[in-house]
Design a protein that fits this description.
By secondary structure, this protein is α+β, with helices and mostly antiparallel strands. 25% of the residues lie in helices and 26% in strands. It has helices spanning 2-21, 26-34, 69-74, 87-94, and strands spanning 42-48, 57-64, 80-82, 96-97, 103-104, 123-129, 151-158, 163-170.
Length: 171
């Protein structure tokens, strides 16, 4: 009986040690998703509702930079596109009508339903469709409103304010 108890405690401690050692910081999570290190930025806001069995939820972050280091990383990076946003991504960020004629509020909004990303005229965006049905061109946003679930990552960099907005959704 004593050996079984010691064995169970050892297993518990080992599991605890393993689960704690793999915890990534918010900056590491965003950097990994974007493929660019954001360590020089200051995370002003970070919320993540992912959890549960399926890991559904949303992540939003606002990161500011004091210099042009992040901009210099993305301006020649083929994963990033210069503004303007596509019509679908404009609907995601600010709300509006999708190509099917359906009206949407902004996906990225505060508790009062106000968009968290201001109107940006000079910027770059990063979009990856992570939906399992769409593996051919992950930069194509044409089908995001045609499915029962949404799994994508969108990041927007405002050149003028040196601010990065990060959003990921999994439904």
């Amino acid at each position: 009986m004593k050996k079984a108890f010691i064995f169970l405690i050892a297993i518990f401690l080992l599991c605890n040690l393993v689960s704690c050692s793999g915890t990534a910081t918010n900056q590491e999570i965003i950097s990994n998703e974007l493929g660019i290190d954001i360590a020089s930025g200051n995370i002003e806001t970070y919320t993540d509702t992912h959890g549960g069995f399926h890991g559904d939820g949303e992540t939003y972050s606002k990161i500011t930079f004091s210099d042009d280091s992040f901009y210099n990383e993305i301006k020649n990076n083929t994963d990033w596109s210069p503004f303007p946003l596509t019509p679908n991504l404009t609907v995601v960020v600010y709300g509006g009508t999708d190509p099917n004629g359906d009206s949407w509020e902004s996906f990225i909004k505060d508790e009062n339903d106000n968009p968290l990303i201001p109107e940006i005229s000079n910027g770059y965006y990063f979009f990856i469709d992570r939906h399992s049905d769409f593996k051919n061109n992950k930069k194509d946003d044409s089908k995001i409103f045609d499915r029962h679930s949404m799994n994508f990552t969108l990041a927007i960099y405002d050149i003028t304010s040196k601010t990065l907005y990060f959003y990921a959704i999994d439904t």
